[in-house]
Protein backbone atom coordinates (compact mmCIF):
# COMPACT_ATOMS: atom_id res chain seq x y z
CA UNK A 1 0.00 0.00 0.00
CA UNK A 2 1.39 3.45 -0.94
CA UNK A 3 0.87 6.15 1.67
CA UNK A 4 0.29 9.82 0.88
CA UNK A 5 3.28 12.15 1.27
CA UNK A 6 2.24 13.58 4.66
CA UNK A 7 1.72 10.14 6.14
CA UNK A 8 5.00 8.81 4.78
CA UNK A 9 6.82 11.85 6.13
CA UNK A 10 5.20 11.53 9.53
CA UNK A 11 6.03 7.83 9.83
CA UNK A 12 9.47 7.75 8.33
CA UNK A 13 11.02 11.22 8.39
CA UNK A 14 12.75 13.09 11.12
CA UNK A 15 10.38 15.92 11.95
CA UNK A 16 11.78 19.12 10.48
CA UNK A 17 9.84 21.08 13.02
CA UNK A 18 11.76 19.94 16.05
CA UNK A 19 15.14 20.56 14.47
CA UNK A 20 16.16 17.45 16.42
CA UNK A 21 17.25 13.96 15.51
CA UNK A 22 14.11 12.19 16.70
CA UNK A 23 11.49 10.45 14.61
CA UNK A 24 7.93 11.66 14.48
CA UNK A 25 6.17 8.64 15.87
CA UNK A 26 2.60 9.20 14.74
CA UNK A 27 0.99 10.89 11.79
CA UNK A 28 -1.39 13.71 12.53
CA UNK A 29 -4.83 13.77 10.95
CA UNK A 30 -5.27 15.34 7.53
CA UNK A 31 -2.74 18.14 6.92
CA UNK A 32 -4.13 21.65 7.21
CA UNK A 33 -2.84 23.21 4.01
CA UNK A 34 -3.95 25.12 0.97
CA UNK A 35 -3.15 22.90 -1.97
CA UNK A 36 0.25 21.28 -1.65
CA UNK A 37 2.29 24.42 -0.93
CA UNK A 38 3.90 25.10 2.42
CA UNK A 39 3.10 28.67 3.43
CA UNK A 40 3.57 31.25 6.13
CA UNK A 41 0.69 32.78 8.05
CA UNK A 42 -0.53 36.07 6.64
CA UNK A 43 0.57 39.21 8.47
CA UNK A 44 -2.17 41.12 10.28
CA UNK A 45 -0.85 44.68 10.03
CA UNK A 46 -2.00 47.36 7.62
CA UNK A 47 1.26 47.50 5.67
CA UNK A 48 2.44 45.28 2.86
CA UNK A 49 5.86 43.81 3.55
CA UNK A 50 9.05 44.27 1.56
CA UNK A 51 12.25 42.36 2.07
CA UNK A 52 15.84 42.35 0.92
CA UNK A 53 18.98 40.36 1.66
CA UNK A 54 22.11 42.29 2.66
CA UNK A 55 25.72 41.08 2.70
CA UNK A 56 27.94 42.44 5.46
CA UNK A 57 31.66 41.99 6.09
CA UNK A 58 33.28 42.83 9.42
CA UNK A 59 36.98 43.31 8.76
CA UNK A 60 37.65 44.27 12.38
CA UNK A 61 37.56 40.66 13.59
CA UNK A 62 38.39 37.21 12.23
CA UNK A 63 35.73 34.56 11.91
CA UNK A 64 35.56 32.89 15.33
CA UNK A 65 34.73 29.44 13.99
CA UNK A 66 37.06 29.03 10.99
CA UNK A 67 40.74 29.60 11.80
CA UNK A 68 42.58 31.62 9.19
CA UNK A 69 39.50 33.48 7.98
CA UNK A 70 40.43 37.13 8.41
CA UNK A 71 36.95 38.69 8.44
CA UNK A 72 33.49 37.80 9.73
CA UNK A 73 30.99 37.63 6.84
CA UNK A 74 27.26 37.75 7.47
CA UNK A 75 24.05 37.55 5.51
CA UNK A 76 21.00 39.29 6.93
CA UNK A 77 17.43 39.71 5.74
CA UNK A 78 15.62 42.99 6.29
CA UNK A 79 11.82 43.05 6.38
CA UNK A 80 10.05 46.42 6.32
CA UNK A 81 6.73 48.15 5.50
CA UNK A 82 6.11 49.10 1.89
CA UNK A 83 3.41 50.90 -0.08
CA UNK A 84 4.55 49.40 -3.40
CA UNK A 85 4.91 45.65 -2.91
CA UNK A 86 5.25 44.59 -6.55
CA UNK A 87 4.63 41.01 -7.60
CA UNK A 88 7.75 38.96 -6.83
CA UNK A 89 7.54 37.24 -3.47
CA UNK A 90 10.66 36.41 -1.53
CA UNK A 91 12.03 32.90 -1.58
CA UNK A 92 12.12 31.20 1.82
CA UNK A 93 15.31 29.31 1.00
CA UNK A 94 17.15 28.47 -2.17
CA UNK A 95 16.99 24.82 -3.30
CA UNK A 96 20.64 24.38 -2.31
CA UNK A 97 20.03 25.82 1.16
CA UNK A 98 16.97 23.64 1.66
CA UNK A 99 18.90 20.54 0.62
CA UNK A 100 21.80 21.25 2.97
CA UNK A 101 19.43 22.04 5.85
CA UNK A 102 17.30 18.92 5.35
CA UNK A 103 20.36 16.70 5.03
CA UNK A 104 22.07 18.43 7.95
CA UNK A 105 19.09 17.53 10.11
CA UNK A 106 19.25 14.00 8.67
CA UNK A 107 15.70 14.23 7.41
CA UNK A 108 16.49 11.81 4.62
CA UNK A 109 12.87 11.05 3.76
CA UNK A 110 11.91 14.66 3.16
CA UNK A 111 12.11 16.07 -0.35
CA UNK A 112 15.48 17.88 -0.17
CA UNK A 113 14.22 21.08 -1.78
CA UNK A 114 10.95 21.26 0.19
CA UNK A 115 11.78 24.50 2.02
CA UNK A 116 12.53 26.30 -1.24
CA UNK A 117 8.84 25.97 -2.12
CA UNK A 118 7.45 27.82 0.93
CA UNK A 119 5.09 30.65 0.02
CA UNK A 120 6.02 33.86 1.83
CA UNK A 121 4.15 37.17 2.14
CA UNK A 122 7.08 39.56 1.58
CA UNK A 123 8.03 41.17 -1.72
CA UNK A 124 11.62 41.31 -2.94
CA UNK A 125 13.31 44.72 -2.95
CA UNK A 126 10.04 46.66 -2.69
CA UNK A 127 10.46 50.36 -1.94
CA UNK A 128 10.52 50.99 1.84
CA UNK A 129 7.77 53.23 3.24
CA UNK A 130 7.81 55.59 6.17
CA UNK A 131 9.09 58.91 7.43
CA UNK A 132 12.76 59.52 8.13
CA UNK A 133 13.93 58.07 11.47
CA UNK A 134 10.40 56.94 12.37
CA UNK A 135 10.48 53.12 12.40
CA UNK A 136 11.61 51.04 15.39
CA UNK A 137 14.10 48.26 14.66
CA UNK A 138 13.87 44.66 15.87
CA UNK A 139 16.74 42.18 15.54
CA UNK A 140 15.96 38.44 15.31
CA UNK A 141 18.46 35.66 16.06
CA UNK A 142 17.50 32.06 15.20
CA UNK A 143 18.15 28.91 17.17
CA UNK A 144 21.46 27.08 16.97
CA UNK A 145 21.86 25.37 13.53
CA UNK A 146 18.69 27.13 12.35
CA UNK A 147 18.75 29.68 9.50
CA UNK A 148 17.38 33.19 9.78
CA UNK A 149 14.45 32.22 7.59
CA UNK A 150 12.83 30.10 10.31
CA UNK A 151 11.62 33.31 12.01
CA UNK A 152 10.10 34.74 8.82
CA UNK A 153 6.47 34.66 9.94
CA UNK A 154 7.30 36.70 13.04
CA UNK A 155 9.40 39.11 10.98
CA UNK A 156 6.65 39.64 8.40
CA UNK A 157 4.13 40.30 11.16
CA UNK A 158 6.24 42.96 12.85
CA UNK A 159 7.06 44.61 9.52
CA UNK A 160 3.38 44.74 8.62
CA UNK A 161 2.86 46.77 11.81
CA UNK A 162 5.52 49.31 10.90
CA UNK A 163 8.75 47.83 12.24
CA UNK A 164 12.02 47.31 10.42
CA UNK A 165 13.13 43.77 11.23
CA UNK A 166 16.54 42.25 10.58
CA UNK A 167 17.17 38.50 10.79
CA UNK A 168 20.79 37.38 11.08
CA UNK A 169 22.38 34.21 9.77
CA UNK A 170 25.23 33.54 12.18
CA UNK A 171 27.73 32.13 9.71
CA UNK A 172 29.09 28.61 10.28
CA UNK A 173 26.45 27.99 12.99
CA UNK A 174 23.90 26.68 10.49
CA UNK A 175 24.03 24.39 7.47
CA UNK A 176 23.94 26.85 4.58
CA UNK A 177 24.60 30.58 4.30
CA UNK A 178 24.75 31.75 0.69
CA UNK A 179 26.84 34.79 -0.17
CA UNK A 180 26.23 37.02 -3.23
CA UNK A 181 29.16 35.48 -5.13
CA UNK A 182 27.60 32.02 -4.84
CA UNK A 183 29.76 30.67 -2.02
CA UNK A 184 27.90 28.65 0.61
CA UNK A 185 29.24 28.61 4.16
CA UNK A 186 28.40 25.36 5.95
CA UNK A 187 28.23 24.42 9.64
CA UNK A 188 31.76 24.56 11.06
CA UNK A 189 30.45 24.32 14.64
CA UNK A 190 28.41 21.17 14.13
CA UNK A 191 31.35 18.93 15.00
CA UNK A 192 32.12 20.74 18.26
CA UNK A 193 31.13 19.55 21.73
CA UNK A 194 27.98 21.36 22.84
CA UNK A 195 28.81 22.14 26.46
CA UNK A 196 28.35 25.30 28.50
CA UNK A 197 31.71 26.71 27.37
CA UNK A 198 30.70 26.26 23.74
CA UNK A 199 27.37 28.02 24.19
CA UNK A 200 28.86 30.88 26.17
CA UNK A 201 31.27 31.45 23.28
CA UNK A 202 28.38 31.20 20.81
CA UNK A 203 26.34 33.78 22.74
CA UNK A 204 29.32 36.14 22.69
CA UNK A 205 29.87 35.65 18.97
CA UNK A 206 26.23 36.41 18.30
CA UNK A 207 26.34 39.51 20.50
CA UNK A 208 29.25 40.78 18.41
CA UNK A 209 27.34 39.95 15.21
CA UNK A 210 24.36 41.96 16.45
CA UNK A 211 26.43 45.00 17.36
CA UNK A 212 28.09 44.95 13.95
CA UNK A 213 24.72 44.69 12.19
CA UNK A 214 23.42 47.66 14.19
CA UNK A 215 26.53 49.63 13.18
CA UNK A 216 25.94 48.84 9.51
CA UNK A 217 22.22 49.59 9.55
CA UNK A 218 22.22 52.72 11.68
CA UNK A 219 25.76 54.11 11.33
CA UNK A 220 27.13 56.83 9.06
CA UNK A 221 27.51 54.57 6.01
CA UNK A 222 24.44 52.34 6.13
CA UNK A 223 24.40 49.11 4.15
CA UNK A 224 20.66 49.21 3.37
CA UNK A 225 18.96 51.89 1.28
CA UNK A 226 16.08 52.19 3.75
CA UNK A 227 18.26 52.74 6.79
CA UNK A 228 17.23 56.38 6.97
CA UNK A 229 13.77 55.26 8.07
CA UNK A 230 15.12 53.56 11.21
CA UNK A 231 14.83 55.28 14.56
CA UNK A 232 18.11 54.14 16.10
CA UNK A 233 16.91 55.17 19.57
CA UNK A 234 14.26 52.42 19.53
CA UNK A 235 15.80 48.97 19.12
CA UNK A 236 14.51 45.60 20.30
CA UNK A 237 15.78 42.06 19.97
CA UNK A 238 14.30 38.59 20.13
CA UNK A 239 15.58 35.13 19.44
CA UNK A 240 14.63 31.49 19.60
CA UNK A 241 16.57 28.95 21.64
CA UNK A 242 20.27 29.96 21.50
CA UNK A 243 19.13 33.12 19.76
CA UNK A 244 16.98 33.96 22.77
CA UNK A 245 19.88 33.60 25.16
CA UNK A 246 21.92 35.68 22.72
CA UNK A 247 19.40 38.48 23.19
CA UNK A 248 20.60 38.76 26.77
CA UNK A 249 24.25 38.62 25.74
CA UNK A 250 23.69 41.30 23.10
CA UNK A 251 21.82 43.56 25.52
CA UNK A 252 24.58 43.18 28.11
CA UNK A 253 27.19 44.13 25.50
CA UNK A 254 25.30 46.88 23.65
CA UNK A 255 23.17 49.51 25.35
CA UNK A 256 21.51 50.44 22.07
CA UNK A 257 19.15 47.48 22.53
CA UNK A 258 16.21 48.72 24.62
CA UNK A 259 14.15 45.56 25.13
CA UNK A 260 14.56 41.83 24.58
CA UNK A 261 12.76 38.50 24.36
CA UNK A 262 13.97 34.93 24.82
CA UNK A 263 11.80 32.30 23.12
CA UNK A 264 12.47 29.05 24.99
CA UNK A 265 16.24 29.36 25.03
CA UNK A 266 18.37 28.03 27.89
CA UNK A 267 20.36 31.00 29.17
CA UNK A 268 23.07 29.24 31.20
CA UNK A 269 23.22 32.07 33.75
CA UNK A 270 24.26 34.65 31.17
CA UNK A 271 22.74 37.73 32.82
CA UNK A 272 25.67 39.73 34.25
CA UNK A 273 26.18 39.57 38.01
CA UNK A 274 25.34 43.26 38.21
CA UNK A 275 21.95 42.59 36.61
CA UNK A 276 20.16 43.76 33.47
CA UNK A 277 17.81 46.68 34.04
CA UNK A 278 16.24 47.02 30.60
CA UNK A 279 12.90 45.30 29.81
CA UNK A 280 13.04 41.59 29.11
CA UNK A 281 10.54 38.76 28.57
CA UNK A 282 10.86 34.98 28.73
CA UNK A 283 8.27 33.02 26.75
CA UNK A 284 8.50 29.26 26.60
CA UNK A 285 7.13 25.76 26.90
CA UNK A 286 5.58 24.35 30.11
CA UNK A 287 8.88 22.67 31.00
CA UNK A 288 10.31 26.18 31.19
CA UNK A 289 8.20 27.00 34.24
CA UNK A 290 9.82 28.20 37.48
CA UNK A 291 11.57 25.29 39.12
CA UNK A 292 11.44 23.35 35.84
CA UNK A 293 14.08 21.36 34.01
CA UNK A 294 16.16 24.43 33.08
CA UNK A 295 17.28 26.16 36.25
CA UNK A 296 19.11 28.86 34.27
CA UNK A 297 15.84 30.73 33.77
CA UNK A 298 15.32 30.82 37.54
CA UNK A 299 18.89 32.04 38.07
CA UNK A 300 18.76 34.69 35.39
CA UNK A 301 15.25 35.84 36.33
CA UNK A 302 16.57 36.99 39.70
CA UNK A 303 19.18 39.14 37.95
CA UNK A 304 16.69 40.89 35.65
CA UNK A 305 16.19 44.10 37.61
CA UNK A 306 13.93 46.09 35.28
CA UNK A 307 10.47 45.48 33.79
CA UNK A 308 10.15 41.75 33.19
CA UNK A 309 7.68 39.01 32.33
CA UNK A 310 7.89 35.21 32.32
CA UNK A 311 5.24 33.64 30.08
CA UNK A 312 4.50 29.93 29.68
CA UNK A 313 2.44 28.68 26.73
CA UNK A 314 0.50 25.48 27.35
CA UNK A 315 0.63 22.72 24.75
CA UNK A 316 3.81 23.91 23.05
CA UNK A 317 7.12 22.26 22.25
CA UNK A 318 10.47 23.89 21.55
CA UNK A 319 9.84 24.53 17.85
CA UNK A 320 6.32 25.91 18.39
CA UNK A 321 7.73 29.45 18.39
CA UNK A 322 9.16 29.18 14.86
CA UNK A 323 7.84 28.70 11.33
CA UNK A 324 8.64 25.02 11.56
CA UNK A 325 5.54 24.35 13.67
CA UNK A 326 3.40 25.79 10.86
CA UNK A 327 5.03 23.46 8.37
CA UNK A 328 4.50 20.47 10.66
CA UNK A 329 0.75 21.00 10.61
CA UNK A 330 0.75 21.54 6.87
CA UNK A 331 2.68 18.29 6.31
CA UNK A 332 0.61 16.34 8.81
CA UNK A 333 3.57 15.68 11.12
CA UNK A 334 2.87 15.23 14.83
CA UNK A 335 5.62 16.93 16.87
CA UNK A 336 3.95 16.35 20.22
CA UNK A 337 2.36 19.78 20.60
CA UNK A 338 -1.31 20.05 21.54
CA UNK A 339 -1.39 23.74 20.66
CA UNK A 340 -1.46 23.82 16.87
CA UNK A 341 1.20 25.49 14.77
CA UNK A 342 -1.08 28.31 13.60
CA UNK A 343 -2.26 28.99 17.16
CA UNK A 344 1.29 29.00 18.56
CA UNK A 345 2.29 31.29 15.72
CA UNK A 346 -0.53 33.70 16.54
CA UNK A 347 0.45 33.76 20.22
CA UNK A 348 4.13 34.28 19.43
CA UNK A 349 3.42 37.15 17.07
CA UNK A 350 0.84 38.81 19.31
CA UNK A 351 3.02 38.83 22.43
CA UNK A 352 6.02 40.08 20.49
CA UNK A 353 4.00 42.94 19.08
CA UNK A 354 2.72 43.82 22.55
CA UNK A 355 6.22 43.73 24.03
CA UNK A 356 7.76 45.98 21.40
CA UNK A 357 4.77 48.29 21.14
CA UNK A 358 5.01 48.84 24.90
CA UNK A 359 8.73 49.39 25.17
CA UNK A 360 9.65 50.87 21.78
CA UNK A 361 6.45 52.82 21.08
CA UNK A 362 5.34 53.40 24.69
CA UNK A 363 1.80 52.21 24.01
CA UNK A 364 0.10 50.59 27.04
CA UNK A 365 -0.51 46.85 26.62
CA UNK A 366 -3.08 45.18 28.84
CA UNK A 367 -2.00 41.86 27.33
CA UNK A 368 1.23 42.13 29.32
CA UNK A 369 -0.47 43.21 32.56
CA UNK A 370 -2.84 40.31 33.17
CA UNK A 371 -3.93 36.95 31.72
CA UNK A 372 -6.07 37.21 28.59
CA UNK A 373 -9.29 35.29 27.91
CA UNK A 374 -8.32 35.45 24.23
CA UNK A 375 -5.10 33.55 24.93
CA UNK A 376 -5.88 31.18 27.81
CA UNK A 377 -2.87 29.04 26.86
CA UNK A 378 -0.59 31.78 28.15
CA UNK A 379 0.06 32.03 31.86
CA UNK A 380 2.18 34.51 33.82
CA UNK A 381 4.78 32.33 35.49
CA UNK A 382 6.27 35.40 37.15
CA UNK A 383 6.42 39.15 36.77
Work out the radius of gyration.
19 Å
Low-confidence stretches: 1-35
Largest sheet: 12 strands, mixed
User: Residue share in helices?
Assistant: 25-40%
Topology:
Layout: H1 5-12, E1 48-58, E2 72-84, E3 89-91, H2 95-104, E4 119-124, E5 127-128, E6 135-141, H3 152-160, E7 164-169, E8 177-178, E9 184-185, H4 196-218, E10 230-240, H5 242-253, E11 259-263, E12 280-284, H6 295-301, E13 308-313, H7 323-331, H8 341-360, E14 378-382
Parallel strand pairs: 1-4, 6-7, 6-10, 10-11, 11-12, 12-13
Antiparallel strand pairs: 1-2, 2-5, 2-7, 3-4, 8-9, 13-14
Helix pairs in contact: 3-8, 4-5, 7-8
Structure description:
By secondary structure, the protein is of the alpha/beta class. Helix content is 26%, strand content 22%. It has eight helices and 14 strands. It has helices spanning 5-12, 95-104, 152-160, 196-218, 242-253, 295-301, 323-331, 341-360; strands at residues 48-58, 72-84, 89-91, 119-124, 127-128, 135-141, 164-169, 177-178, 184-185, 230-240, 259-263, 280-284, 308-313, 378-382. Strands 1, 2, 3, 4, 5, 6, 7, 10, 11, 12, 13 and 14 form a twelve-stranded mixed β-sheet that branches. Strands 8-9 form a two-stranded antiparallel ribbon. α5 (242-253) links the parallel β10 (230-240) and β11. α3 (152-160) packs across α8.
What would a concise description of this structure say?
The chain is α/β, with parallel strands linked by helices. Helix content is 26%, strand content 22%.
Characteristic terms for this protein:
alpha/beta, 12-stranded mixed beta sheet, two-stranded antiparallel ribbon
